[in-house]
Write a structure and sequence with these properties.
The chain is 45% helix and 19% strand. By secondary structure, it is an alpha+beta fold. The chain has a four-stranded mixed sheet with strand order 1-2-4-3, with helices on one face. A hairpin with a 4-residue loop joins strand 3 and strand 4. It is globular.
């Protein structure tokens, strides 16, 4: 399946963009959620597994931001906290999905 151009996160329509890796800046990473542009950018050269992991990771950043978990006094109020928590949850979910291939189909059926 081709990666769609948009995803809805909360009340926002978030654009999904692809970008070639530049590695020209120290913060270059596999993906980025930008709340000001309502966009998720994902590197175009990733393996299928890394692309899926990155997409979930950036969606979780969007969920955290849109639900105000990143504002002062909230659980993810610093970049360090946010990144650690989002990364651990993403990697945990990906492991569950890989170890239980039936789960995504089951959830899809139950959500309808």
């Amino acid at each position: 399946m081709k990666l769609p151009d948009k995803i809805k996160i909360g009340y926002q329509d978030v654009t999904i963009e692809r970008e070639r890796a530049s590695f020209s800046k120290p913060t270059d990473s596999y993906g980025e959620y930008d709340h000001r542009k309502n966009s998720i950018t994902i590197q175009s050269e990733l393996s299928s597994l890394d692309e899926a992991n990155t997409l979930i990771h950036e969606i979780l950043h969007g969920i955290a931001y849109i639900n105000s978990l990143t504002v002062s006094g909230q659980p993810l109020d610093s970049d360090g906290k946010e990144e650690v928590v989002i990364n651990q949850i993403t990697n945990g979910l990906m492991q569950v999905f890989r170890d239980n291939p039936w789960l995504i189909s089951y959830l899809k059926e139950k959500i309808k």
